[in-house]
């Protein structure tokens, strides 16, 4: 596999700067879904986005592709893909970049195949829409054979229907479709959802192999922090629409600095190291119709002070490539919390 240090020295392929996206409600109210999110992805790098449900991970992904819901409103920021700000493009111009420069493996996509067309026909449809010039039947078939070999599917399955594929094969075929136009960046939204652990491991191995062979950049979105640990170079932690910590994956796992990251890892079991009691992540994410003032995590944070409830912390660099948004990151212990952690119990009323 390409060394992470080599990847980090490469040119940037995707830069997201101060992205703000809200959902407009029927009564005119706004849900703050993505708030001031910034990150950079270099050629060949992989970034994992983690966080609780509703934290904004998928909203960020759909905004990158300009496929957000009709009531979504992008209120600010930039999405620079290979030097082009996607937010400044017309719908037709964006369509030319979508799938050819940036594509996506959608959440639950393995169940989205049209049952009345063969899988090969559906992959070719994507190629017909986005290749210029449109491929001939022979070119399309040759490309699909190449893709099936790449993702570990027997090419004899090209003319088979979706019901003839297992769940793992459908997921591999979705990945093949996402690769059909040779994109520079792929977004994989929960790519192993509903798969058993054996097939999940196989899919992840295929994705890592594809990334190395094609030198492609990937954004993984997952609730499973173990998946992110295994396959990414960088990890971004989102909470209530904001990016609260981002940095090298190994560093965040070894020494998380944001209290939210620390608590997520403290509540996650591990098969390595000594056995320890897990610490639950107490409380619930805030209502984004009316998010709390200051740091959005402060009502659940064991290290919160008055300043946290009054002033919003900026995303600041604390080490090379490691950024956090926290006023009290120096108070976060170097070891993970346990269920008996007195500091959390004493602060449980916040």
Notes on the protein architecture:
With 350 residues, this protein is an alpha/beta fold. It folds into two domains: 4-113 and 182-237, Rossmann fold (3-Layer(aba) Sandwich), CATH 3.40.50; 261-346, no CATH class. It is built from twelve helices and twelve strands. It is globular. Residues 342-350 have low confidence and may be disordered.
What would CATH call the architecture of the largest domain?
3-Layer(aba) Sandwich
Number of helices: 12
Number of strands: 12
- N-end to C-end Cα span: 45 Å
The amount of beta strand, in percent, is 15-25%
CATH top level assignment of the largest domain: Alpha Beta
What is the share of helical residues? 25-40%
Unreliable segments of 5+ consecutive residues: 342-350
Order of helices and strands: HEEEHEEHEHHHEHEHEEHHHEEH
CATH H level of the largest domain: which superfamily? Answer: P-loop containing nucleotide triphosphate hydrolases
**Radius of gyration of CA atoms, rounded to a whole number:** 21 Å
Shape: globular
In brief, what are we looking at here?
The protein is of the alpha/beta class and 350 residues long.
């Amino acid at each position: 596999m390409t060394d992470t240090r080599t990847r980090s020295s490469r040119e940037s392929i995707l830069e997201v700067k101060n992205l703000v996206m809200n959902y407009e409600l029927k009564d005119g109210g706004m849900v703050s879904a993505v708030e001031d999110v910034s990150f950079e992805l270099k050629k060949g790098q992989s970034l994992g986005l983690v966080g609780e449900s509703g934290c904004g991970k998928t909203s960020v992904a759909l905004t990158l592709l300009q496929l957000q819901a009709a009531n979504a409103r992008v209120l600010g920021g930039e999405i620079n893909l290979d030097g082009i700000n996607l937010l400044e493009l017309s719908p037709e111009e964006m369509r030319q970049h979508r799938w050819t420069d940036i594509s996506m493996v959608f959440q639950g996509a393995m169940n989205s195949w049209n049952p009345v067309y063969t899988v090969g026909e559906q992959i070719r449809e994507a190629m017909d829409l986005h290749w210029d010039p449109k491929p001939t039947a022979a070119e399309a078939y040759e490309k699909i054979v190449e893709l099936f070999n790449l993702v570990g599917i027997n090419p004899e399955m090209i003319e088979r229907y979706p019901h003839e594929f297992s769940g793992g094969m459908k997921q591999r075929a979705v990945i093949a479709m996402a690769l059909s136009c040779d994109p520079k960046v792929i977004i994989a939204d929960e790519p192993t959802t509903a798969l058993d652990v054996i097939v999940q491991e196989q899919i992840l191995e295929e994705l890592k192999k594809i990334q190395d062979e094609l030198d492609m950049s990937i954004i993984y979105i997952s609730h499973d922090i173990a998946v992110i640990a295994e396959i990414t170079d960088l990890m971004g932690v989102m909470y209530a629409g904001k990016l609260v910590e981002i940095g090298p994956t190994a560093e965040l796992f070894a020494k998380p600095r944001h209290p939210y990251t620390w608590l997520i890892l403290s509540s996650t079991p591990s098969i390595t190291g000594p056995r320890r009691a897990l610490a639950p992540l107490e409380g619930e994410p805030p209502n984004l119709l009316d998010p709390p003032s200051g740091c959005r995590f402060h009502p659940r944070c064991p290290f919160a002070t008055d300043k946290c409830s009054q002033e919003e912390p900026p995303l600041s660099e604390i080490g090379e490539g490691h950024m956090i948004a926290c006023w009290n990151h120096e108070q976060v212990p170097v070891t993970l919390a346990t269920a008996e952690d007195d500091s959390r119990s004493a602060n449980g009323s916040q």
